Amino acid sequence: MNSKALLYCLSLIALTFNGLAELRLPKVLGNGMVLQRDLQVPIWGWANPGDAINVSFSGQEAKTKTKADGKWMVMLKPLKANNEPSKMVITSGRDNKTVTLGNILVGEVWICSGQSNMEWAIRSSMNAKEEIANSDHPLIRLFNVPGHTTSPLPKEQGAGTWQVCSPKTSGGFSAVGYYFGRRLLKELKVPVGLIGSNWGGTRIEPWTTLAGFESVPELASIAKQVKGYTAETRVGGRSPSAIYNSMVHPLTPFAMRGAIWYQGESNGGEGKSYYHKKHALVNGWRKAFQNKDLGFYWVQLANFRQPNKNPAGGDGWAKIREAQTAALDIPHTGMAVAIDLADAHNPNDIHPRNKQDVGGRLAQWALHQTYGRKELVPTGPLYKDHQIKGAAVHISFDHVGKGLMVGKKTKLEPTVEVKGGKLEHFAIAGEDKKWVWAEATIKGDTVIVQSPDVPNPVAVRYGFTMNPANANLYNRDGIPAIPFRTDR
Q: pTM for the complete prediction?
């Protein structure tokens, strides 16, 4: 081929490329979005290689040039919360191709993710008709990642659009996510952006990044598997990293305050291994969203199946709940307890309809820890320590709040104290490891556990079973104690 022909071919290629490489943005950057306040805000997209990019928003201008592959990114300086809709103007190239985004608010942004209990929509939850009718909240914006998709490699572009929260748009959104965001709006009085990315029946591994697996030595074999993926690798809904690559990575590095997570049923037979996977999930997402302080709050699995009458417990989800509790050693995390929220009349329903209290308890953690509302106790009593004194075991707790009580929770009603009530679901054992149901009494901020059948106790268990239906230790703030055992 002579030089003129080569030049002609190259010009055709350039024209074709230019036609395809118009200024584009990821779907998560769109009309009606909420941008995160008080953090640097990445704005990114694609255009022709070498194009000059100018982003104008809220009195700021940020400039850059696209790289050889057409990618570009600018960082807006931290923004102040703003309830008034604003617009963003992005221009590229010598001919000033322009994209204008409108109706943008600035406030708090959270991703809401997990399996079916997070995916569970408002329209299928308790008091759905009333809740949807009352969901006119123009300061809440909803972005739902549609469908259930996978990819062997991280995808740059995904799907979804921002919508203003209203009775016309709210019904199909995550109920837990919505009730979490609604409480944040009420307490913080700033706009709230909620991003839903969920898939019922999924394990934790497909949601976890390669970098997350690599950060936990115990998961090296999974990291090796994911590292071997190519564009041709066949993956599905159970393949490690495959859901993250398709349903979360296209959102990165959108600036946000944190994540709420409701998942674990599909990993329900695990214990310590789930603890390692939770570390990998959080580590990976914090790196992907470029926020080492990304708040991460999850739901401990709710009560499920028929109650177990064996005081030793340990059945079903007991050990994964224990792993979920142990993962609280990750900085800036929290866990909403849900062992009192399933329908007592339908214990075989894996989808408790009371999502209001789940979202509210997640928000309680976020308000306490992320937003510094230290007057709010973040959760229910959490086992701290124990002392054996003669024939009794004295249990002490963190997060006692206003004090301990025997409580009762009925549907959406506030928890009430049961005056003169008896603590239940405490078990005790001696060296022979024969567990019996115990007598437990509240004394100040401690619980004293004993049984005439165990004169020399060594260990106590509380609610350590698939369905601790009768567990009734609460703090006076109305939040249940977290199941535990002392015999680790």
A: 0.95
